Amino acid sequence: MVIHKKTEITIGILYALGAGFQGFGTLQNSAAYFREMADNAWLPPAASFIETFLVPNSVAITVLVVCFEGLGAIAILSRRRAVLPALIAGGIFSIVGALTGGPVETIGYAALAALHFKLAAGRRGS
Questions:
Q1: For the whole model, what pTM was predicted?
Q2: What total of structural domains would you count in the chain?
Q3: Does a structural domain hold residue 28?
């Protein structure tokens, strides 16, 4: 259980760092960020989705991602009841990342989704 706790805390810190990166790095150039994401997506429907929906709404999407990651960080690092739903939401978020990324991102996000769901299952079992 100690490993799970440390892994959850690490994920919470990664969400906090992600929120900071998105807020201070991506937000200023969000359309270019999402265009590059579309260029790197290896699934044609994902590239089309990104170009059609994310690029035109890039600022709003980036703000939503910042809020999601920030709230995820707070929920996970709080070590309270909100950890379980945050892990499940993070797993779903990671699946979206896997489906919209390039091959390397797909592998990384798929592994991250599996980790989120494994941690969530451990919490449900306790």
A1: 0.90
A2: 1
A3: yes
What's the CA gap between 60 and 67, in Å, rounded?
11
Domain assignment present for residue 94? The answer is: yes
pLDDT digits (tens, 9 = 90+) for 76-96: 999 889 999 999 999 999 999
In a domain, 126, yes or no: no
> What is the reported pLDDT for 126?
58
What residues make up the domain containing 112? 2-121
Classify residue 52 by its DSSP letter.
I
Which tokens in the block code for residue 104? 């390397």
Contact 43, 101 (CB under 8 A): no
> Average pLDDT of each block of 10 consecutive residues along the chain (126 residues)?
84 97 94 95 95 97 98 95 96 96 94 96 78
How many beta carbons lie within 10 A of that of residue 21, not counting itself?
Answer: 13
Does some domain include residue 104?
A: yes
